[in-house]
Amino acid sequence: MIPGTRLVPxxxxxxxxxxxxxxxxxxxxxxxxxxxxxxxxSPADLTEFAVGFTVSEGIAPADxxxxxxxxxxxxxIELRMxxxxxxxxxxxARRRALAGPVGCGxxxxxxxxxxxxxxxxxxxxxxxLSAGAAREALDxxxxxxxxxxxxxxxxxxxxxxxxxxxxxxxxxxxxxxALDKLIGALALSGRDGAEGxxxxxxxxxxxxxxxxxxxxxxxxxxxxAPTAQAVALAQGAGLAILSGAGGTIRAYSGTIxxxx
Length: 260
Hints:
By secondary structure, this protein is an alpha/beta fold.
């Protein structure tokens, strides 16, 4: 059985059977001995989750994270990290102790202005893609979702490089967690986010734009449409959003999609 799943009895038209369901556990992000956030997440790729969350939330760059200690706890899992003393002020300014529902990526933000803070302008993209290539990227992610195949209950985030395909993919019960895990995996492998696009199985909301911008990727490809606020934020950052909702590739922001 795939790690992070549990067999649970269920009944259907054909009678009783055991079905694999995804695990969902509290995972605490702990910096320098203090809890910053507690997120409900799938208990896999936890080092990647710790590094990716640290980067995407602007707490510290990946090279300052060092070793991640994964510690069991009676109520869940702790991801313990030690950052340089120069990061203490940033941690204290944004510290939050919370249980973050998997459907909410902005839980714990203390000031309304932080939710829609402007993003730095990304450099112009180094590459472009056709609508056909965008569709191929979305289809390719489907082949990198073993946890979804087993449970039909999780999201995925992948990184697609033109001419190469999906080079990394992560899954989680939370779409934000899946993206954080992907960002961590790319950081740990030393891959430059500007090389490719983030591919998502979920809708594109503000926090997904913020995390992708932190990665430095110039585009998001998603199976669902974005929110209006996500498009506005992406436009200001020079980030392309492409959606395959309804079977047609549509560009909502950016200039990365080649014109027919």
